Amino acid sequence: MTPDQMRDASLLELYRMEADAQAQVLDAGLLVLEREPNHAGQLEACMRAAHSLKGAARIVGLDDGVKVAHAMEDLLVAAQEGLLRLLPEQIDGLLQGSDLLRRVGAPVVADAPSAERVEQLVGLLQQQLATAVPALGRAAAAEEPRVQNEVMPPPVTAPEPAEELHEDNRGRVLRVSAERLDHLLDMSGKALVEFQRIQPLADSLQRLKRQQTSVRRSLDGLRDATLNSSLEPQVLALLEESRTQLYECQRLLHDHFEAFDEFSWEGGQRSRSLYDAALSSRMRPLADVLVGRARMVRDLGRSLGKQVRLDIEGEATQVDRDVLERLDAPLTHLLRNAIDHGIERPELRARKGKAQEGRLLLRARHRAGMLLLELSDDGAGVDMERLRDVVVARKFASSETAAKLDEGELLAFLFLPGFSLREQVTEVSGRGVGLDAVQHELRQLRGSVRLEQRRGEGSTFILQVPLTLSVVRSLVVEVAGEAYAFPLAHIEHMVRVNSEDLVQLEGRQHFWHGDRHVSLISASQLLQRPEGRTEEAGIPLVLIRERDNLYGIAVERFIGERTLVVMPLDVRLGKIRDVAAGALLDDGTPVLILDVEDLFSSISKLLGSGQLERVDRRSQGAQETARKRVLVVDDSLTVRELERKLLLSRGYDVAVAVDGMDGWNALRAEHFDLLITDIDMPRMDGIELVTLVRRDNRLRTLPVMVVSYKDREEDRRRGLDAGADYYLAKASFHDEALLDAVQVLIGEAQG
């Protein structure tokens, strides 16, 4: 490449940079002018941007750019002088000109606009000017040949591209490759973690200092005890010398410890500052990913016959570069979704008393180490009845089930793969590959999305993602004696549940959380680790949610919340199931960061296999194993809970089942000392259950009590004939009657 070619290449690069910057000014200003055609500030800014691009295009020899920019400038100057009022059609032409000015300097010739397209646009702009101001239109047409024949000024020598340095109002800027920046962040993160390992050494020195103090006191006591003794002078001298040497050691240790403590504090601060500086260098304002979004909203709205504008609050909010790049597609889809599904047509909005122009509002802010985005529209909201009908029509739920679903449960269907409210496929929507893709991408980012709506007033999508993927705020737990981390973004709650509060439903352990049953799953079984034991009160549980499913993952111990520096696993390991990355705790202990998306898949397979292991009731120790176990089978929640609490108050270990089939499954899976069952139940009644128990070789000796509303003698005889050992009528039921009967059948709670 010759020096002239190098110069031309660098000039074109400079033009492309200026074209991008000035086109952003044009896009933003023209969108304002569409709403406020007489906005003097934006008219001036757009005119100057077009004028600057005309000069830049002329310098690098882009004649097409000169023509387009000149035609745009004429139209804007006429508007600035009050000779015309910019209409939406003229704004369309100016926006097309902004797009074309970006493309005339395209690095690939094939990407540049054709000469025919340039002439069409220039002709359109001149025609719009001539229609509005005939005299100016004729002058502009006459001036066009002169513009083409102007002698170009000598090109300005561009700076060498290798330096890539420039000054602006933010100071000196240097371009650095993303790979080098990532390496710097990785090294600074490791330096921070490694330096934190100095704390155990400081603790050891502190213990040594205390031990020396203890030895000194012992020597002082020994000296005092021997002052009036008849020990040899040599022994006394040796004792005194030992005291002197110990004092000297203490003095040296004290001095070194103070120096070490100062070094530890300053080194820790500097390591943290280095990491924070490296991390901040990756941060970019949210505005970087929103470039062109206001223009896209406006253009898509017009293509659908709607007037829509996008307002942004918090566009200066800083976010990690990688997070920004991966937010691009989800945000674009949600914006398109809001325009297509949310915003009504102008005539319909007018009938509803709304402004003809629809409004989208994107708010961004930091909250608890996360980026919170709220995208709202002032449209129609979600038609919940239509959504319910579509759920039934597409066989996602029966009509009876759909009728019982609340608003939150119905809105969750919008995030299912293949679900769409559109009956026909259009260029914008209807293919059923929308919100599920948004949700999947955000979960890959360790984030979440949810939808809130107000019928007739609009909808709001609430997105929450980490500010950076380089560190992750996590809950560190212990499983099988090893540390694992759950990203906090995926955790619904952290709770402790007493073993007495666990219930058995359809062969699975559950517990009450709020107003719903939550399935209980052992983390050791999920991760295929040996089950550990703990003496802590209650079972520590991590609650994670997948759409409407809430699961409680039983762990051994909560270690605490930590900010972990993410360390990707060696690529040679491939994808490890349920594991996303690694990290180091402050003391250097390795910890695996769990992939919660993978965990949901593993949970689904585990539940489908029917081999779910019972969570060990570790907190009760050996005494727990000696407690008598009772299974209560009743389809009435009130009766089940009453009997369960009565038996628990006497020290019995109680499990419950919702009907005979559920009870039969529980009896075959676990050991019980007593069965208490109702008679009238769905799927399998109590008589059938007792009959099956008495036919089973393992269960035939199990004591059985029937508690039923039926108090007739034939009902009592029917239950006893089936094999029940005791029949108690609910009509004459009272606390002591049940407890006395249980004690007669199996004795006290402790065997």
Give a brief rundown of this model.
This protein has 751 residues and is of the alpha/beta class. The chain has 24 helices and 25 strands.
Please give a handful of descriptors for the protein shown.
751 residues; alpha/beta; Four Helix Bundle (Hemerythrin (Met), subunit A); Heat Shock Protein 90; 5 domains; six-stranded mixed sheet; five-stranded mixed sheet; 25 strands; disordered N terminus
Would you give an account of this structure?
- The structure is a single chain.
- The chain folds into 5 domains: 3-149, HPT domain (Four Helix Bundle (Hemerythrin (Met), subunit A), Up-down Bundle); 179-280, Four Helix Bundle (Hemerythrin (Met), subunit A); 295-466, Histidine kinase-like ATPase, C-terminal domain (Heat Shock Protein 90), CATH 3.30.565; 471-618, CheA-289, Domain 4 (OB fold (Dihydrolipoamide Acetyltransferase, E2P), Beta Barrel), CATH 2.40.50.180; 626-746, 3-Layer(aba) Sandwich (Rossmann fold).
- Helix content is 49%, strand content 20%.
- The chain has 24 helices and 25 strands.
- Helix 2 (40-59) runs antiparallel to helix 3 (63-80), helix 3 packs antiparallel against helix 6 (134-149) and helix 4 (88-103) packs antiparallel against helix 5 (115-132).
